[in-house]
Design brief:
The protein is α/β, with parallel strands linked by helices. The protein has two domains: 5-193 and 378-409, Glycogen Phosphorylase B (Rossmann fold, 3-Layer(aba) Sandwich); 203-377, Glycogen Phosphorylase B (Rossmann fold, 3-Layer(aba) Sandwich), CATH 3.40.50. Helix content is 38%, strand content 18%. The chain has 14 helices and 14 strands. Strand 9 (224-229), helix 7 and strand 10 (253-258) form a beta-alpha-beta unit.
Length: 410
């Protein structure tokens, strides 16, 4: 019996450091794919000399991978005049990369795949309802300007999927209500973290590394760090982050910002305008291992998002023993316990600053052990293995049925 083939479709290059929960999840599906599967990725190239539209046999995270770049995209952390999703969808039109299993992380590219044969799964990361209905940050996604158009497209395409997996309970309920004919195909999927990269350290070692970082960037040894990690994009509202940190007004607390995006220049201007230049460090895009190191030595991770699913960065921080302060967006509120973080009920600088103050002044109330215990069911080996196990069972069942049918006909 041949191996089943999984083809993953998304507009990125896994060997190029990039920001986003979708990219993280895809990387984990490749890394933890069992040997029973052949895994392929239809993505984008980031090297102008890389040959596009040609399958390449390569390796990612120790796993064999067939990779096909549709076109060259040198920086997918910055939005372009023509949305990358439009370019990606256009490049798929008229082609066929059908396989036994196909995973999609955006709806639009499946315009090109409607007649492809094979089992198709759509992954949903955000709270679609809040994402489409929000009145502020109109530049966050283009579809906000045309919500009726998005939902019309969705209703056209959704029936082709054999599974729709959502990490957000609101989107799960929305899809079940809007599409009762496929209700049984819609299910909840836990987001996950890589336990080989994100793990805690003993308190003494953690404190020693914190002091090393403080000394390295010219700060007092008793400086403590607040971390923000994510795309500098209206969805994440990093300008609210800067204003919240200004409202915190604690000289011995330093803000680290890991990420890049179209709001980087505005953030730098806001930092200067609020007189925070010596209290905020912009780190740019980091590799996962570098980000894990920061999680382990920071006192708290802060998120100021307008809408979310269940952010990977929350799971990764908790896995490193670091508590969370976040706006009430997505499913994070359903994950956290009172001893692993604070949910800010208002998206205001004062409310978020109060949440930070609560954790920073009373770290004993948010022990590392509680954070790790909260997130342990979301470990990648557990979550990803479960998905692949169900896929393999379906594949074997279909294959055996086809063999019996063929034998009966013969």
């Amino acid at each position: 019996m041949r191996k089943p083939i999984l083809t993953i479709f998304y507009q990125f290059n896994p060997w190029h450091t990039t920001i986003g929960g979708i990219q993280t999840l895809i990387g984990l599906f490749i890394k933890y794919a069992p040997k029973e599967f052949v895994v392929r990725l239809v993505g984008t190239g980031n090297d102008r000399y890389q040959q596009v539209l040609k399958w390449q046999e390569t390796e990612f995270a120790g796993r064999e991978l067939s990779f096909l770049p549709l076109f060259t995209l040198e920086n997918d952390n910055i939005r372009h005049l023509v949305p990358t999703t439009v370019r990606y969808t256009t490049a798929l039109l008229g082609r066929c990369f059908a396989s036994d299993f196909m995973h999609f992380y955006r709806l639009e590219p499946t315009l090109a795949t409607f007649n492809w044969q094979g089992e198709k799964t759509l992954f949903i990361q955000n709270d679609i309802q809040r994402q489409m209905a929000a009145k502020d940050d109109n530049n966050a996604i283009l579809w906000r300007r045309f919500p009726a158009g998005y939902f019309a497209l969705e209703s056209l395409l959704v029936k082709q999927f054999h599974q729709i997996l959502s990490c957000n309970t609101n989107s799960l309920e929305l899809y079940q209500q809007r599409y009762p004919s496929v209700r049984e195909r819609i299910a909840y999927l836990k987001n996950t973290f890589d336990e080989e990269i994100f793990y805690p350290l003993p308190r003494q070692e953690r404190d020693a590394l914190r002091q090393q970082l403080a000394t390295k960037i010219g700060l007092a040894a008793d400086t403590r760090f607040v971390l923000f990690a994510g795309r500098l994009h209206p969805q994440k509202d990093p300008l609210l982050l800067i204003r919240s940190f200004a409202a915190l007004n604690k000289p011995n607390i330093h803000l680290l910002i890991a990420g890049d995006g179209e709001l980087a220049n505005q953030i730098n201007s806001e930092i200067e305008q609020l007189g925070l230049s010596k209290r905020v460090t912009m780190l740019g895009v980091l590799k996962q291992e570098e980000l894990a190191h920061l999680h382990r030595i920071c006192s708290v991770l802060v998120l100021t998002s307008a809408f979310e699913g269940l952010p990977f960065v929350v799971l990764e921080a908790l896995a490193c023993g670091t508590p969370i302060v976040t706006t009430d967006s997505g499913d994070t509120a359903q994950l956290l316990f009172a001893d692993s973080g604070v949910i800010c009920k208002q998206r205001t600088p004062e409310c978020i600053a109060d949440g930070l103050r609560q954790v920073l002044l009373h770290p004993e109330n948010y022990p590392s052990e509680s954070c790790v215990r909260t997130v342990s069911p979301y470990a990648a080996r557990t979550v990803i293995s479960s998905v692949y196990g169900e896929m393999l069972n379906r594949w074997e069942s279909r294959t055996l049925s086809a063999m019996k049918l063929k034998k009966g006909v013969a």
